Each structure stands twice: as C-alpha cells, then as structure tokens.
Amino acid sequence: MRSLSDDFDVLCEMAEEDEASLIEAVELFPKFETALSELEKKALLSGENDVNNAIVTINAGAGGTESCDWASMLHRMIVRWCEAHKYKVATTDVQYGDSAGIKSATLIVTGNFAYGNLKSEIGVHRLVRISPFDSNARRHTSFSSIFVSPEVDDSINIDIQDKDLRIDVYRSSGAGGQSVNTTDSAVRITHLPTGIAVACQIERSQLQNKMTAMKILKSRLYDLELEKRRKEQKALEDSKMDIAWGSQIRSYVLHPYKLVKDHRTGFSSSQAETVLDGDLDDFMKNYLQWMSLGGKKITDNDLDDL
C-alpha cells in the first residue's frame, strides 16, 4: 500500500509536465483505490473475534413453503459469497422443507476474517416477490433469519459437563440419490442448561459428526458468554428478533421494482439478482463503517419506501 501511494504521488507530480506519466497515473489509480478500500476494511475488522472462522445458521420464518424457499435462497447467497472470496464452506446440518427449500441450515465458514465479514448478515431478511408457488401470481412477503457466531479457538476454555448434555442419534436426511447416508450416524446435541441444540449429519461416521457438533456447541456457548460479559455490546442480541415484519435488517424487493436495502445503514442496490448471487461486499463494508460510528436502530419510519 505504501509503495502504491508513493508511486501514485510521484506520477501525479510528473503528470503536470509529462503526458505519459498522466496516463500511467490514471491506470494506477484503480489499483490504488482498491488497495485503500481493502486497508480500510481491515482497519474496521478489529473486533475481538473478527479474524475467526464463522458458524452461520439460517432459519425459515413463518409462511411454510414460501419462507423455506427464501431460506434456501439465503443459503445459496452466503455460499456464493464464500466461494467468490475463497472461503471454505461446509453445510453441517440441513432440515428440508416439506415441499421445497429448507427449514434450517448450519454452515461452517473457514478463512481469515470470516466472522468479521459475515456478522453483517445477522438478523431477519425480508423478501418481496411474485410467488412461484402461487397459481394466481400474487405478490408475497417472506421472512428468514441469519445468525452468525465466531468459531471458538480450542485454546479457550469452555466447560461443558457430560451431565448437561443430551445426545441423540438419527438417520441422516437428504434430497435423495445414491450418496444419501442411510446409517444412524447423524448426531444432535442439546445443552440442557441453556436449551441450545446443534446437529451434524455430513459425515458417515457418528464420531466425526459428534466432534463437529461439539465444536458448534462450544462456539454457541462461547458466544453466549461473550454476551453476558459485554452487555453494552447489544448488536448481536438486538438482531435476534421475531422472524416477521418490523424486525428485518434488510429487504429484497423483486416486484414491482428491484431493490435491496439495508435498514440499518441505509445502503441500497438496484442489482437484486447480483446481490442474491453473493455480491455482498458493499453491504458488508457499509455495515462495518456504520458500526465504527456507533450505529443506531433504524425505526419503522425509515421503511417508508419499502
């Protein structure tokens, strides 16, 4: 970054008398601008757990098939963003909808600053569209939520007593095909004192599924402890609202116009399909800037254009 800055400054000085330097400065500027943007983003990712891997949970709201389909769209959006940024992503548990989509899904995203970036997605996401499931082609509104917690480093001591756990095994579910696991290897672990339940079914080995589920549980409990110790930081807790109107952090309107708007930062994009294909960088950057300035809750009066 320092080298780019120095080169750009020199070229700008020389450009007053040298046309070739002006052309070179113009060509260098996009690289300088990109590097500056990345530097700013890294400066904003200074939270205690921002560098950690992320555990992402997606849940469909009320609304049956509509919400389950919307949850699957959010799942794809997160996966596409991860793939575009070279993050490793594994879906550790999926509960499929009765007719389409998913009721819930848990993903582990591995890579530097996965949590710091993805924490911008915490909250309720609202979709407005002409329903593909409505024979009368009416406009429908659907809600689903995303929650993100940092994966806990093994060096952090989270005391989990065996007596506080209920471990259930069951047959893995899937969409069908030869690769479906037909053994009772899926594992669900419930932490009785808190009621937190996690599950994993991606491995054929019951032991491996249990190890992954324990890692997720440990992360959830660690996140719970962070909230207790840092009550003044209510951003995560405030986002855990009912999955319904009035609590959304972002709206995705596909009809009668196309617009994606973040109700916390006010940032919006008319490229709805691109956003749903994983182009979340501008939303993430604006969220980080908004948080660095203290952030504030957007009221219902701010939703008048949606």
CATH fold descriptor of the largest domain: Alpha-Beta Plaits
**Fraction of residues in β-strands:** 15-25%
Alpha-beta content class: alpha+beta
Radius of gyration, rounded? 22 Å
Strand order of the largest sheet: 2-3-1-5-4-9-10-11
**Class of the largest domain, according to the CATH hierarchy?**
Alpha Beta
| Biggest β-sheet strands, sense, barrel | 8 strands, mixed
Helix content: 25-40%
What coarse outline follows from CA principal-axis ratios?
A: globular
The ordered string of helix (H) and strand (E) elements is HHEHEEHEEEEEHHEEEHH
Question: Please, could you describe this protein's structure?
Answer:
The strands form 2 sheets. The protein has an 8-stranded mixed β-sheet, with helices on both faces. A 3-stranded antiparallel β-sheet has the order 6-7-8, with helices on one face. It is α+β, with helices and mostly antiparallel strands and 306 residues long. It has helices spanning 2-14, 19-44, 65-84, 114-118, 206-229, 235-239, 272-276, 281-292; strands spanning 54-60, 88-96, 102-110, 123-130, 139-150, 165-170, 186-191, 196-200, 248-253, 259-262, 268-269. It is globular. Helix 1 (2-14) runs antiparallel to helix 2.
In short:
This protein has 306 residues and is of the alpha+beta class.
